[in-house]
């Protein structure tokens, strides 16, 4: 009985250590780059939307030329899914227009990291490898750049990162109803996260031990109902603004209205494959070799995705594939394909910032990998190298 009582305590200590290491890394980056740990970023679009909501308006009523705004019907609208506005809206009653979004993205990253740790622990991982893998989700890749500055684009991705990992954590414990609610909220931040739905369901049902369709229906119906309510709210919001339940406003951004092929197109696929699957991190310029500012291979930028590919290949070779693992890999590939249709894959960035949306697939796969409930030695080495490279890259991007 005594040993059983110590496990949660040790897990809490590891969680506290994760928080401490994260705080130290963010503080070091702040001193290095000059970016404040807290405060408001110049790209405070969600705060403007929240203040508009408080006035009872769906539009901003005026242009803010330095922000990406949808222009429709002679008015200006926030062109991003609205779920990230909800926590900002609540915070405006404390901070007014000065919501500290630079700190907010760090809190999203921290909660997502702790959720990843909890998910791996629930799957039977020991604390040390679970903590390091969780640390890598936020600091070994493009996510660290998104948690450095609370700009509008980064808020959406980091809240999606958090809610997706919370969904994985809850599903790994068989708590499907709140897991599916978190999943639905992640879609309200990043619509292509819809791909995670079947995976969250499979993980939760497996944990619950559902053996029949009746068992599955009993475990799913409340969560599905909550998810549909979120989807209905998003659709109604889009309809009220643009007359289209599927239009969040990105198609009315001047940038994409001027683009020959729009925001998403098969015409963008070949170029994105060259850049974001096989592109090298450095390029030679007149000033010498420099880190690419507009993206390179998402696997070099986010080494956990290499771990996912290798684990899948090993399971194929060893005959250890399961329904959850197969679904995880196929859904990862499907979402990656959709992201590769985007015109910029994130624009100015460290690595490939849209690939942050894919990082939770590694956690989901690792939670389902009963044959390897730890990190391989090469994964420890790759993770350490990836953290060092990410710190270097973020310092270069944000200096």
List the helices and strands and how they pair.
Elements: H1 2-33, H2 45-54, E1 69-72, E2 75-78, H3 85-95, H4 101-122, H5 127-139, H6 143-146, H7 152-172, H8 176-187, H9 197-208, H10 213-242, H11 254-257, H12 269-276, E3 282-285, E4 288-291, H13 298-301, H14 303-318, H15 323-339, H16 359-368, H17 377-398
Antiparallel strand pairs: 1-2, 3-4
Can you walk through the features of this model?
The protein has 399 residues and is mainly alpha-helical. The protein contains 17 helices and 4 strands. α1 packs antiparallel against α4, α4 packs parallel to α16 and α5 runs parallel beside α17. The chain starts with a helix and ends with a helix.
Mean pLDDT over all positions? 92
Order of helices and strands: HHEEHHHHHHHHHHEEHHHHH
Largest sheet: 2 strands, antiparallel
Helical/strand content category: mainly alpha
Morphology call: globular
Please give the share of residues in helix. Answer: 55-70%
- How do the strands of the widest beta sheet line up side by side? 1-2
How many β-strands, per DSSP?
Answer: 4
Report the uncertain regions: none
Terminal CA distance reads 53 Å
Rg from alpha-carbon coordinates: 21 Å
The percentage of residues in β strands lies in under 5%
Count of discrete alpha- or pi-helical segments spanning 4 or more residues:
17
